[in-house]
């Protein structure tokens, strides 16, 4: 049976609270962290076996030393179908507010972007299947478990997905450091897809053609570029600020 191994307090907590099937929880021997004790109690309530292990055993299970004394065996991560998301929005009448990522390859960046998307109230994160990072245990740890709270959609062709969003009434705004229009001018209300490009290359030309606006983040210091996850977080929260106001 295929399975994933999650590690870290926040990813394990969100997985236990969510709908993902969990098989077994491992916690460190002689642990004193009350957060781990609470998660062990929650697992027992859910009838998930709880095993105590030495720290070295947890490191072997997690594949790295950053497990915080807790590891969870779970069913593989399941992506949401793009068509399912669109049909659900059509039926509900709710405005679309999504993040599309074009070629993010660093799992730490992907996790941070998903975490920001969840905090800013975006409804889904769209990622391509090829030449991009997918959801892995490292991404789940970097997202602090946010992958369990915001739908992640994996598509074969991101440009086509953006075109479908436009047909559904979405504006598509992309981040481009060379744009002379900054992120504080547009109207972010209504149906909206925000596009953040990959590290180094930014948004690819084909995806760029599907953007209605290209926006840049004003910078005032000596460094000429922002990390992809930081830039994405800034534009997401500007959009969220306007939408909530």
**Tally of distinct domains:** 2
How many angstroms does the end-to-end distance come to?
48 Å
The Rg value, from CA coordinates, equals 19 Å
> What coarse outline follows from CA principal-axis ratios?
elongated
Specify the CATH homologous superfamily of the largest domain: SPOUT methyltransferase, trefoil knot domain
Number of strands: 10
Q: In the CATH hierarchy, what is the architecture of the largest domain at level 2?
A: 3-Layer(aba) Sandwich
Q: Report the mean per-residue pLDDT as an integer.
A: 92
- Give the helix tally: 9
- Helix content bin: 25-40%
Query: Which fold name fills CATH's third level, the topology of the largest domain?
Result: Alpha/beta knot
* CATH structural class of the largest domain: Alpha Beta
Structural class: alpha/beta
Q: pLDDT under 50 segments (min length 5)?
A: none
Structure, explained:
- Helix 1 (9-17) runs parallel beside helix 2 and helix 5 runs parallel beside helix 9.
- The strands form 2 sheets. This protein has a 6-stranded parallel sheet, with helices on both faces. The chain has a 4-stranded mixed sheet with strand order 1-4-2-3.
- The relative contact order is 0.15.
- The protein has 9 helices and 10 strands.
- The model has no long low-confidence stretch (mean pLDDT 92).
- The protein has 2 domains: 4-74, 2-Layer Sandwich (60s Ribosomal Protein L30, Chain: A), CATH 3.30.1330.30; 82-244, Alpha/beta knot (3-Layer(aba) Sandwich), CATH 3.40.1280.10.
- The chain has helices at 9-17, 34-45, 55-62, 82-92, 107-120, 137-142, 158-167, 205-208, 228-244; strands spanning 4-7, 22-28, 50-53, 70-74, 97-102, 124-128, 152-155, 171-175, 192-197, 213-215.
- The chain is of the alpha/beta class and 245 residues long.
